[in-house]
Amino acid sequence: SLIVSELNGSVMKCIRDQNGNHVIQKCIECVPQDRIQFIVSSFLGQVVALSSHPYGCRVIQRVLEHCDDPNTQVVMDEIMNSVCTLAQDQYGNYVIQHVLQHGKLHERSAIISKLSGHIVIMSLQKFASNVVEKCMTYGSLEERQLLVKEILGPNDENEPLQELMKDPFGNYVVQKVLETCDEQSRELILSRIKVHLAALKRYTYGKHIVSRVEKLVTSGEKHIASSTSYRS
């Protein structure tokens, strides 16, 4: 505990150091919370900056894993105020993914509702597209349906789906959507995609989707065939 108390006043300096950050992570993992209160206190007002830092983002994830409320609540509030910024950041996105995967139900829902309305833009971005994939993986059925609705757009002519399928990051989001969505949404998406299959083959990233869709379509047709073959 003497060692820990010596860190007081140097927490930020340690976090930004490639060796020091491991010491801070270890303290958070191993030392009783009442002794490391000063560590978490030194983050106040700095959570977004830390989450956007190559070492800081790891430290913030350790706090979320090992500390209880009210310690984490203050950290979480700052994260929640900057969800869209962090989702697009090369380090911050890991913090948002962490909350989506390990956070409480209401935290996950709060993140998804903050991202909704921006899903298409986020899906076309290198870092944020990973966050959208996590939303599809860990969101509730209703939340996933809302995200699908956003990706399909208001009507057939104006659908973002085509743009996403041709995009180096967006195509992964579409694959994740097909993997995670309910049967009804999948049928709808596949029917929308089928129209564009020929055109998609001309695009580097479109090809990934084409092979994925062709597999899904054939397995779907086999499934239909097998369920109808007994009728005389």
Automatic annotation (TrEMBL):
GO molecular function, one term: mRNA binding
SMART domains noted in UniProt: Pumilio (SM00025)
Pfam families recorded: PUF
Entries under CDD domains matching the protein: Pumilio
SUPFAM superfamilies reported for this sequence: ARM repeat
Record has Repeat as a keyword: yes
One GO biological process term: regulation of translation
A GO cellular component entry from the record: cytoplasm
Keyword field: Repeat, RNA-binding, Translation regulation
Domain PUM-HD: 1-217
Matches recorded under InterPro entries: ARM-like, ARM-type_fold, PUM-HD, Pumilio_RNA-bd, Pumilio_RNA-bd_rpt
UniProt repeat feature Pumilio, residue ranges: 6-41, 42-77, 78-113, 114-149, 150-191
PANTHER family: MATERNAL PROTEIN PUMILIO (PTHR12537:SF12), RNA BINDING PROTEIN PUMILIO-RELATED (PTHR12537)
Protein name: PUM-HD domain-containing protein
